[in-house]
Amino acid sequence: KEDIFPPCCITVILNIGHVLALRRLSRMWRTMAERHKAQKRTIDDAKLLFLQRHPTAAAATATAIALSAPDAATPPPAAVALECEIRAWRGALETWLSAQRAYARALAAWARRCLGIGGAGAGGTAAAALPLAFAVCMEWGHAVDAASEARVMDGLDFFVAGVGSVCSGVATGMEGMAGRVLCAGMAAVTGAMAEFADASADGYDALVSAVAAGAPGRRKEEPTCGPQVS
C-alpha cells in the first residue's frame, strides 16, 4: 500500500512550514527591537529632564544602586510591585528563550536521527549535502544559539538592584534620585533588549535567506511529488 504522503511531499510541507515559522519569528523579534528602541528614546529623554531638575542626583545614582540597607523601613507597595514585575518579566523571558532553544534543538535531533547522523559526526556533514528541510532543522539550532541574552539578563538584574536600593531607603532625602535610578535601570534593559532582538531577527533573516538561496539548486536533485506529465 502506497503512503498517502510520499517522502518528497513531506519534505515540501516541512520546507514551507519552516520558512513560514522563521519569517514570523524574524518579524516578531524585529518588532520587539523597534518597540524597545522607542522605549529607550523616551527613557533617555526622561533622564535628561531629571538631570535638569536634579543635577546633584547624578553622582548619587550609582551609589544607590550599589548599596542596600537591610534594616530599612518597609518599602512602598508600588516599588515592591515594580520589583516583582521585573522579576516576573525576567523569568518569562528566560522561559521563552529556553523553550525556543529546546524546540530548535529537538528539530535538529530529529533530523539527525532521520538521516542517521550521530551527534559527533553531524558537524562533518555539509549542509548543502542534506535535504533542505533537514538542513533547516539542523541550522535552526545554531541560529537560536548565536545571539546571547546575557546583557539582557544583566540589565534586568541591574534594574532590580536599582529598585531594591530605592525600596531600602538609601535614597531617603535625595530628591529626584529615585527617578534617575529607575530611568537608568529601564534604559539598560530596553537598550540591551533592543540589541538582542535585532541580533535574533538578523539570525532568522540569514537562515531564511540561506533556505531561499539553497532551494533552487536542490529542486533539481530532489524528486517532485505526484505523477509527472511529460
Automatic annotation (TrEMBL):
<protein>
    <submittedName>
        <fullName>Os08g0519750 protein</fullName>
    </submittedName>
</protein>
<dbReference type="InterPro" id="IPR006867">
    <property type="entry name" value="DUF632"/>
</dbReference>
<feature type="domain" description="DUF632">
    <location>
        <begin position="23"/>
        <end position="163"/>
    </location>
</feature>
<dbReference type="Pfam" id="PF04782">
    <property type="entry name" value="DUF632"/>
</dbReference>
